[in-house]
Amino acid sequence: MTATENAADAYAAERDTTEGRVYTVTGGDWDELVASVDPVSEERLIVNLGPQHPSTHGVLRLVCELEGETVRSVRPIVGYLHTGIEKNLEYRNWTQGTTFVTRADYLAPIFNETAYCLAVEKLLGIEAPKRANTIRVIMMELNRISSHLVALATTGMELGALSMMIYGFRDREYILDIFEAVCGLRMNMAYVRPGGVAQDLPANGVKMIRDFVDYMPKGLDDYEGLLTGNAIWQERTQGVGYLDVSGCLALGVTGPVLRSAGLAWDLRKTMPYCGYEEYDFEVPTHNGADAWARYVIRLAEIRESLKIISQGLDKLEPGPVMVEDKKIAWPAQLALGGDGMGNSLNHIRHIMSQSMEALIHHFKLVTEGFRVPAGQVYTSIEAPRGELGIHAVSDGGTRPFRIHMREPSFINLQSIPALAEGGLLADVIAGGASLDPVMGGCDR
Amino acid sequence: MSADATGTGGSAPDGVQPVGVQRPKGLFGVADTGDTSGFGGLVRAEPTPAEIPSSPEPLGGYFDEIVGALRELLGDDVTRAVVVDRGELTIHIAPDRTAEVCRAMRDDESLRFEFCASVSGVDYPDRRNRLHVVYHLTSMTYRRNVRLETAVGLDNPTVQSVTAVYPTADWQEREAYDMFGVVFEGHPHLTRILMPDDWEGHPQRKDYPLGGIAVEYKGAHIPPPDERRAYK
């Protein structure tokens, strides 16, 4: 570029400026230079979605390369919610581990806890009592419903069906109320513990759950009435985010997405745990392999979960909810006091004024924890988003040597390029929402 | 760690020891301070032999079938050690043969491990080959599980990538690289995934402290958690 002082400019008239000299950028090879770096001339735009964007399910970042409105490439970038849960676990005892893993996938805390506890129990070579297993199943299925409701709600919100969001979160609230009554907390409850569960169901627990089981089918009918026949909903989801069985298997995608492609792979059926083999339920599948099929599958799975819950309630028999071995079971019994849930006063009286040995035992078990024989195990359960695996390694100490969470959100997100490339930008959102990723789980 | 509270002698016993056994080192397994805050740097596992003792064969169940088929396909030396523990089969293999083994595991009719469930790393700081990479494979056809394990040292932490066989290993290998510094040869784009791109060190290694990051907040210098309070 040249800027000759007194040359007449073909494009701009001379004018006075308040300061300095006016330069015009024309002439020479400037046009060529601009053309070579201008992305518009290649008709490709790089659009960055997220990490803070309501349509990306938390702090997920998608870098999309667009040609017009067609997505040519998507690169998911994760890690914004990495909290070092796996590292932290190595500095806490085995029981405290539940309070960490429960915070990974925050929409499915009971699943994180159960998978972790099954791994610890396998390392210890113990099994939770029957009642504890039944309670785990009931709580997991309630949690699966609440997670699927959020999936429906957020997908609805992202595709413009705002009523679905309101209803989905409203009904999830019902389940969170049950969780609060049972565990004292709505999320991140650390309710499932190695050896059983923290406490038995409260007196009104079974009734609350039964009321919910009676209430929910009506809600599901409403959602189907809202969405299934809705032309906009159909247009936005059918044929969108296609991923067939071979794609799912290659990319390791499990859960509703795999079943929406037609493969009835559900760990509750294929590799049962917690006594799932005793329950009568179906594994819904679909041949659509698209966002629509995943919507249908999730609704059907909620109905199956309701079946499991009512069977679980029938199965509940009186009994212990924690292993009898006092070297593993948490010593303190919880009770509701004037200031909320806490150690029962009977227990406090026992250790403080009756038995020195009980106090020592309590102290040792709570601060140091129990030792777990050395070795490694892998346990996997069917979480709402797919296979949730825990690879637990013990060195024989009171703290985990290594815990790895095989998080379905993390694995499933790999398939976003396969789902979205070649489609429209709006379908990136629909396809991503149909995977139902939870970044807390993905980034851990 | 220098102090040995139990006074059983500082060096490792010469004989073969079960994998990863921790010898007690005083109250709560810590050596110098009584810090149970979690930030104090716990004394970890004792040195363990590099050689992993195999379980006696026959292994029972479908395990013999898997090991037999694998040896038939790739030669007897493909399995470095075969361990059956708690009803789970672990096949230890060489780090430069992971891709080959995985391909055989996936494609052979009698094996059919179509699905790679999980790839994770483990750091055994006192072993010669301290960085372990663990693959959990699932056969949907036969409903079986198997664990493949390989180990590399810090001097050459290279493992063959299995992404060509199992594309799902892509992000998981990136995570293992990010957290442990295992380099996967043949991975299409081995970059950090959970930690920021410019992060230094590999956080899940045992010699990497928990916390340890100083931050500045509104002009004040906040020391890392392990330096905030002295327990000495």
Automatic annotation (TrEMBL), chain A:
Q: Which class of enzymes does this protein belong to?
A: translocase
Instruction: Write out the GO MF terms.
Output: NAD binding; NADH dehydrogenase (quinone) (non-electrogenic) activity; quinone binding
Q: Where is the NADH-quinone oxidoreductase subunit D domain?
A: 159-444
* Catalysed reactions, as listed in the record: a quinone + NADH + 5 H(+)(in) = a quinol + NAD(+) + 4 H(+)(out)
Q: HAMAP family this protein is in? A: NDH1_NuoD
Share what the entry says about its subunit structure, partners included.
NDH-1 is composed of 14 different subunits. Subunits NuoB, C, D, E, F, and G constitute the peripheral sector of the complex.
Name of this protein: NADH-quinone oxidoreductase subunit D
From TrEMBL, chain B:
**Lipid biosynthesis: is it a keyword of this entry?**
no
Query: InterPro entries, per this entry?
Result: NADH_DH_suC, NADH_quin_OxRdtase_su_C/D-like, NADH_UbQ_OxRdtase_30kDa_su
Molecular functions per Gene Ontology: NADH dehydrogenase (quinone) (non-electrogenic) activity; NADH dehydrogenase (ubiquinone) activity; quinone binding
What does the entry list under GO cellular component? Answer: plasma membrane
What's the family? Belongs to the complex I 30 kDa subunit family.
Annotated membrane topology is: Peripheral membrane protein
| EC number annotated for this UniProt entry | 7.1.1.-
Principal location listed in the UniProt entry: membrane
Location in the cell: Cell membrane
NADH:ubiquinone oxidoreductase 30kDa subunit domain segment(s) = 91-212
Q: Which reaction does it catalyse?
A: a quinone + NADH + 5 H(+)(in) = a quinol + NAD(+) + 4 H(+)(out)
List the taxonomic lineage: Bacteria, Bacillati, Actinomycetota, Actinomycetes, Glycomycetales
Q: What does this protein do?
A: NDH-1 shuttles electrons from NADH, via FMN and iron-sulfur (Fe-S) centers, to quinones in the respiratory chain. The immediate electron acceptor for the enzyme in this species is believed to be a menaquinone. Couples the redox reaction to proton translocation (for every two electrons transferred, four hydrogen ions are translocated across the cytoplasmic membrane), and thus conserves the redox energy in a proton gradient.
Gene (UniProt) = nuoC
Q: What Pfam families does the annotation carry?
A: Complex1_30kDa
Give UniProt keywords alphabetically. Cell membrane, Membrane, NAD, Quinone, Translocase, Transport
Any idea what this protein is called? NADH-quinone oxidoreductase subunit C
PANTHER family in alphabetical order: NADH DEHYDROGENASE [UBIQUINONE] IRON-SULFUR PROTEIN 3, MITOCHONDRIAL, NADH DEHYDROGENASE UBIQUINONE IRON-SULFUR PROTEIN 3
Query: What's the subunit arrangement here?
Result: NDH-1 is composed of 14 different subunits. Subunits NuoB, C, D, E, F, and G constitute the peripheral sector of the complex.
Q: Which Gene3D superfamilies match?
A: NADH:ubiquinone oxidoreductase, 30kDa subunit
What organism is listed for this UniProt entry? Glycomyces harbinensis
Q: Where is this region: Disordered?
A: 1-23, 38-57
> What domain of life is recorded for the organism?
Bacteria
Q: Does the keyword Amino-acid biosynthesis apply?
A: no
